[in-house]
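The freezer alarm interrupted the setup, so I double-checked each line after restarting. Inputs confirmed:
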Amino acid sequence: MDQGTMDADCIALLPGVLTFLADPKQSLPDDTCLEKLLDWLTNIINEDDDRNLLDQQPCLLEFISSMCASKTTDPIILSFTLKLTGLLAATERGFSRLEERGVVQEAFACKAEAEGDGGGGGVRAQWGEASVRCGWLLGLRALLQHHPAMLFISQRGLTKLILQLQRDKSLFVAAAANQLLAHILNFPHPPMTEQQQQQQQQGTAQENGSSGPECNTATVTAEIVGHVGEALVSQEHFRVLQALRLLALSLPGCGAPLLGSVWRGALGPLEVLLEAGMNKLSLPIMEVLHAASTTELFSQSDARVEELMRATLRVGEPKTAIQCASAITRLQHCSEPLKRLAVGIVLQPLEFITGSPLQILPNGSGDAKQANSHQPALREQLCQKSQCISLLSLSLSSVAELSLANSLFVDASVEAVTGAVLQLLKVGLGQSPSPSPPNKAYIQLIGCSRVQRCGLDALISLSSCEGVRCLRQEVLDLLHQCLQHPDSDPTVLQKTLQALLKWICLDSSDCSEKTHFLTQSLFPALMKRVCDMHWEVRDSTLEFITQLIVNSSDSVAFSGALRGSGIVSLLLACLDDSEGYVRASAISALGQAVTAAQHQGETNTNSHHSLPEEVLTRLLAILAQDTEGFPRRAVLKTVTSWLSRPRPPPDLDQSLSALLTLGIDDFDWEVKVHTLELAEMVMDKTLSRGSLTEALERLQEYGVFGVLFKGLLDCDRPVAQKACQLLLKLREVLEVKGESAGSPPGDTPTFHLQSHQWGEDLLRKCKGVNGDSDWPREGVPAGDWPKGEEVSLREVVGRLDLEGMRQALARSSDHAMASPRSLMEDILAVAQRSDDNAVDCY
Amino acid sequence: MKLYCLSGHPTLPCNVLKFKSTTIMLDCGLDTTSVLQFLPLPLVHSQRLSKLPGWVSKDGAINLEKELKECAGRVFVDSQPEFCLPEKELLDLSTVDVILISNYHCMMALPYITEHTGFTGTVYATEPTLQIGRLLMEELVNFMERVPKAQSATCWKNKEIQRLLPCPLKDVQDVYAWKRCYSLQEVNSALSKVQLVGYSQKVELFGAVQVTPLSSGYSLGSSNWIIQSHYEKVSYVSGSSLLTTHPQPMDQSSLKNSDVLILSGLTQIPTANPDGMLGEFCSNLAMTIRAGGNVLVPCHSSGVIYDLLECLYQFMDSANLGTAPFYFISPVANSSLEFSQIFAEWLCQNKQSKVYLPEPPFPHAELVQTNKLKHYPSIHGDFSSEFRQPCVVFTGHPSLRFGDVVHFMELWGKSSLNTIIFTEPDFSYLDALAPYQPLAMKCVYCPIDTRLNFHQVSKLLKEVQPLHVVCPEQYTQPPPSQSHRSDLMLELQPPPMAYRRCSVLGLPFRRRYERIHILPELAKSLVPSEIKPGISVATVSAVLHSKDNKHILQPVPKPVPVPPTKKRKRVQEEPPERLAPKPLLNGAVPLDPFLATLHKHGIAEVKVEETPDGHILHLQAEDTLIQLEEDGTHIVCDNNEPLRTTLRDLVLRFLQKF
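Predicted 3D structure, all chains:
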């Protein structure tokens, strides 16, 4: 069914739905249906700008005007109506149609104009409801897409009301008002003449009676800019906050002349606010400055954005200063001294706790003095456990961010910072930091997993920095201690393993030091963790082993160490773990171990020559017997990855047929999809070698075709989709290769369809037996399959309407349920049901 | 009040508290770390141990080859192991009235105290403490008597010789207090002096003090003790735990408002968290079994082993331990497993509730039923025929010097597939392993000590707020190996009073009150007068009767009329004359009104001098002084009785009488 018909069907239902919504006795089936309805209408309006919905559906106009006029409309419905009106008036045509009928006026202007006169109007009557105010703002926001709309706002004097709503007691309303104000400020400005600019500055545009579009916009924006200036010097915290939020929202989108005037109005008050040292306002001010930094203001020295940023680092509590500093370090373009200062402040808690001087800022410099101005308060806060943890976490996550950006540390400080992070992690393990810090605040961090996690994250990021290689051994030793520590939290262990992987792989060369670390430290620790009490730890350890083998597969020394460690036999034991996830991870790890052994097989005759065979036997058993899906899926993924290698295990060929058969008959759809992926790999490999006929025979032997047809008939959509995709691929190969090889049409494997279950199913489905509605209607016409004869693969593939199936399967399975039609039918069904219920009651 | 400290071991205390005419011994711990200086006692003849060279000093001057043997580069004493007894010379132990036992680990020195010191008092303990304590003592005796060693080494203890011996023998302290193990007869005799008590049961000692055991949460039947009189309260906190293990949880609230809190038995491994250690234990065990090796767990036959078995019970399936059997070998293995199941009322709530279900409180019963856990009295007999490897063996003694564990060390020590996992925190594992070196088997140290750690104890003390804390000196500084860890010590205000072996501490509080009962008829005769709102006083004339530390005021007996006698008149003992008590005065003489009164009575010339205690009034015309002080008024007036009397009467006007 095409989209147009679907919409036409739905539009036919619209009058009924609107009648339902207008009926005060009816209640909605659920809270989201109005939003869904709006979404659908938005799509319709956006998709087809020329089709005027209002002309097609006069009921919309009726609905809107009656809802806006009635004083008893449900606030929810009224809010919906306002949003709908805004939507319909978003085009100039729609706007004028609605204006002709006085609907725009009724919906959006009556409140502002009739203030205090007590006249009619649903909006005015229901104005006390936050949802109505919100709907009003959102509707206005939607319709403000063209100059007539701006003229409307300006002429009706709506700006004043919007500015009032900016301080509404409902935060949703206040936020929506700010969005709308920002939208107005970012509204495309028509170029102004010099005279107009002067008029705007003098605020005389309106008095002179000019009413051109540019003047309307200018008047409105001037009002808003003036308001922002006033609000910023207000004593009312919320008012200042809202003004700051509006600035942060609007600055990035402001055009050139307005941007300047907005900033001119804000700069002075911002300086005053920072001077006053209001801790609570530092972050919102920083957001404004951040927004300003994305504009041309940042490069204008008289805009003084950087100076203000510097000032945010001076005021407030250490935590706020660090947050501001962290925001500065994220800036794309920022002067080197400011960035240095910000980095210096961000790193202060780390420096203080570990006692390692990081020397980001030159001693005695003005910046160093500024950074130090927070120190007494910082020291005090670091002595309280909760503050200390939160400050350090902040500092460490900034380190992680900084190191990802790579160029932000200067000179040797990467090494120093890494050293400090290491010290901190040592403290977490209960060791004494060296040099000994000036006080004992560090004691409260012993065993604190939050700080450990943040530290490890930082360490992970730091591994990508240049100049840290010299600390590699020290880092590895510490990570090994974390891994060994009996009290390490599972989440800490997981991060430790991630960090280990990064730092081990930092140096890909084989050296005795690395091998020594692997055999003496890492492998014994991993072996213990593979036997851990917590399955999460066992699982992450196995995942780590998998990754480690993947990353080290070309290292001869690594493979040798792995073989000698006894890990592989532990991995085999893990196949019997009680937890499905662990078994799955063990399968992946073993898969990689086998691959690694194969890879090194040429150079070493190893003791694990029977490993692939043993693993394969175990994997087949798991696929056949395991009660959980994860291990079975892992088996197929592992085998597929083996096949993708240049040298798959030699015995694999004999087991493929069994693996494919077991896999496609599984209950789990993901296992079936993985089976089809395996089938695809088998197809790719086989078809790339030898003649087509031979290849098809081999595929027939493996049972690949049966798998594909079974998959196609599967009731799980992703399975059928994948099978369909593979059959299409196969058909293409048959066509292309068949033609080039000049093989006769019948020279493909043949099937006696009736002797296969899938064949029977295929026939039955094609004939539409049982009225199976799942099967795409675009299927093959019934009745022309040869009965009782062998059918060739080419014929089967050719007769199926695979493209049709692909299209049908591409639609999500809930496409019918989630359609607007179903939505409207649901709404109407409620009306129906309530009638029935009324009868039932008697 | 005094505290005599007879043991320096912080977790095996033995202190004596003298309080209100009672002498109370708090615990009777036996320091067994001394056995580490001795050679192991093998159950089966050991070629290796029997052929060790004797020790002779380098210059040949001292020859102790009979007593000392060199083994694995160290010198060990070759005799029956000896234990370090509590100090016996510090005070006369026959004067001890009662012994309070807090848990079965802290009573192992009991026979040494009750049997050979003239002790005639009573020992108080809970039932599980007594029963399991008995098992541990019997096991110890059994371990020693099974491999008798006639030889007793004494020469090396000579101070002059000892200081010439190699380390660590040279530095061993208090060797004079080392004694061989007691006999079963002594055990029975000592334990016959035990009187059983239940938690919160109040036991009166001679009417002077009351002692009460409280649950301490550490082991089955373990207790802390409250020792209190009417006005003083001493809390004795020994091994306690706040972790949820098998025993009843610790009763903390009853420890509140103590004048003195004696604190001992904190965790010996403050840096090891029991949960983490349990995890280590399980993963090392699983790793060894999966690799085909055996696991040896040297442990006590009661206590943490119950928790270990429970943990393994839960871990077994997920760890895929296969069919590897668990063996528990101890002369008292069976009794220990059975006893644990019957002390329902001493268990944690969770286990108590299982008593009402058809399942035993501890899951080790199921392990036994399903043959996964087998227990044997020793390696001889049935065990040898059913022994299967790989396996896990739990056996004693954790010092590795005696018991069946010695055999397994000899048997498994040479293979790197096997692992020994130390879970008991009492012994240094390196010292324990010293005579078995070189050792191929893997060693894992995961001490599980569930007793309070410093963090928990600080929190506890903040809550119960004792006025003074007394503790072993080890708790007042960080552990020597972790000198930067100032969180691993007690930091209190006022600082705790620290003790060491042989310390005698005067506890810093004075007894100020004593409770006295007044008989009703005497009370009825009193005439209270209110001196301040809510405070009334009365004078009492009575006879104080004190018996069994109880004091009673009785009315003065009326004089018995003496029957007239015709006998020769002789000097009779007159009964004390019953005089009505003179009224007592109280109140203060206010200066200004008093001066006004003097003035009214014609005494105008008064010079007032202020003194630290009050005022001195010079009546200059009369040449008289009146000293008005807080606790007295003196009139100094020579030869003018009428004036004195007048002045006295004037003073009395301002005072109250009763």
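Quick read of the result. Residues 1-143+812-842 of chain A form one domain.
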